[in-house]
Automatic annotation (TrEMBL):
<dbReference type="Pfam" id="PF12766">
    <property type="entry name" value="Pyridox_oxase_2"/>
</dbReference>
<feature type="domain" description="Pyridoxamine 5'-phosphate oxidase Alr4036 family FMN-binding">
    <location>
        <begin position="41"/>
        <end position="99"/>
    </location>
</feature>
<protein>
    <submittedName>
        <fullName>Flavin-binding protein</fullName>
    </submittedName>
</protein>
<dbReference type="InterPro" id="IPR024624">
    <property type="entry name" value="Pyridox_Oxase_Alr4036_FMN-bd"/>
</dbReference>
<dbReference type="InterPro" id="IPR012349">
    <property type="entry name" value="Split_barrel_FMN-bd"/>
</dbReference>
Length: 198
């Protein structure tokens, strides 16, 4: 990748949009499963379910019983880290996260999920202790795609994590010199960029 390809902020922001957009539907994209961190320094890998380039919002699915949901609640800082090894590109994103459980967006996300995915919200909540290795699923749900009726109880545990991005840090390793740019979102919604020493 030539250094000249990324010598202005518009091209870099465009690259970020393209990567996040692709990551939503491409399971092979390295950004499909970024690391998400909360203010208590807990980090976990999550699946990126949606990205809106219009309002710069990321969407993840989660279990309302997860400790991160209590930590984030209606609004708290969230960091998202992705690394594309082939491109040698690191993307660090920060924003304000919030948990939604009973909105039209959550209903839509639930409706678009398969019963196989919905079954993950059955059984014990994340972090529950067990005497033996376990998926947390009820025995009857292991390895099957349940019916709509069977997964109905899981809906009350399903939630959405939305992260409205406020800052972007784009860092690419290149043989002829690394390049790093940072962006801060201003009050009107546009981005102000600056070059940073890697």
């Amino acid at each position: 990748m030539a250094r000249a390809m990324f010598d202005n902020f518009d091209d870099i922001r465009g690259d970020i949009v393209a990567r996040l957009t692709r990551a939503v539907t491409d399971r092979n994209s390295p950004l499909h499963t970024p690391v998400v961190t909360t203010a208590d320094a807990n980090a976990r890998v999550m699946v990126l379910r949606a990205f809106s380039a219009e309002d710069w919002t990321l969407r993840f699915h989660t279990d309302i019983r997860s400790p991160k949901c209590a930590m984030i609640g209606a609004g708290a800082p969230v960091g998202v880290l992705g690394y594309d090894r082939a491109a040698k590109l690191q993307l660090r994103l920060r924003g304000r996260g919030r948990i939604e459980t009973d909105t039209a967006l959550v209903q839509q996300a639930w409706a678009e999920s398969t019963n196989y995915a919905r079954r993950c919200y059955l059984g014990d909540g994340p972090g529950a202790l067990s005497d033996a290795p376990t998926s947390g699923l009820p025995d009857w749900a292991e390895g099957i795609q349940p019916t709509d009726e069977q997964v109905m109880p899981a809906r009350e545990n399903f939630a959405v994590l939305l992260v409205e991005l406020a800052s972007l840090d784009w860092f690419i390793l290149m043989h002829d010199g690394h390049v790093r740019a940072q962006f801060t979102r201003r009050e009107g919604g546009d981005w102000q960029g600056r070059w940073v020493v890697p």
